[in-house]
């Protein structure tokens, strides 16, 4: 089988010709042809990470068939690592929109992830769309293919499937390991294997776009595996440094709005944000303080509790418990 595999990979690892037909307008729009992309891509792959962006891809999300949980997980992931998540976009299976979003976010943010569209079917077009956006060829990645063969099992419906025999099913599987590759850069920086139990790679394009699957279990597992590579590029080497304080108040939002407006202006120079959140069905609302200067934030606790006639809590529900006890007495 592996002799056949060797022949197969040699034949299929040549760049696909599809991208020889990119229109001049597309190349001009990207302004980053393969020959000029590498220095910027190399810089993006090494720079400190302050900001992040997320692109959720799939008609099934926009159509309501699939509920996106990956963006919520990524938001928490960024918060815990001290990255400032600036934008989340949900777009359909449209090559132009995927490419435009990838180029724009790569330019604006330090760390970008995409979720979805890297499966074996015709509507899984994320790899080819992003490759086209950056004027890159798609190449069959030999190591990814070897890992796929070693770690994946054919579906029960594919009893006669063989890696040695050409078939539509084989072609479909190979779509998942044909990756955008900048041939002027080190390939090991563009294809990351961060979990030994998975064959699925993280394809990295333009130094900062990380292409992940849409399946939540794989998305979260790969992000967890990527963490050790990100931590040295964060402001805080331990991936800590952003703190959230939570307060509970019995006051209406409109009642505390004036105080919170003044507070927000006071703490903004310190990079701290104030948030106010109504809790429908409850008599108490929530106020948050988010920032990096923990000592300064701690110094504000008594002032805030007085200003909103509330208390600091660990969870929104904590103050509700005393409220429920009062109702029952």
Structure summary:
The chain is of the alpha/beta class.
Key traits:
12 strands; disordered N terminus; six-stranded mixed sheet; alpha/beta; 329 residues; 14 helices; four-stranded antiparallel sheet
How do the helices and strands line up, and which of them pair or pack?
Elements: H1 2-12, H2 24-30, H3 34-44, E1 51-57, H4 59-62, H5 70-81, E2 84-91, H6 95-108, E3 111-115, H7 126-133, E4 138-140, H8 142-151, H9 168-175, E5 178-180, E6 191-192, E7 202-205, E8 209-212, H10 216-230, E9 243-249, H11 253-267, E10 273-277, E11 285-291, H12 294-299, H13 301-308, E12 311-313, H14 316-328
Parallel strand pairs: 1-2, 1-3, 3-8
Antiparallel strand pairs: 4-5, 6-7, 7-8, 9-11, 9-12, 10-11
Helix pairs in contact: 5-10, 6-7
Task: Describe the protein in words.
This protein has 329 residues and is α/β, with parallel strands linked by helices. Helices cover 43% and strands 18% of the residues. The strands form 3 sheets. A 6-stranded mixed sheet has the order 2-1-3-8-7-6, sandwiched between helices. Strands 10-11-9-12 form a 4-stranded antiparallel sheet, sandwiched between helices. Strands 4-5 form a two-stranded antiparallel sheet. A hairpin with a 7-residue loop joins β10 and β11. α5 runs parallel beside α10 (216-230) and α6 (95-108) crosses α7. The longest helix is centred in the last third of the chain and has 15 residues, at 216-230. It is elongated and about 75 Å long.
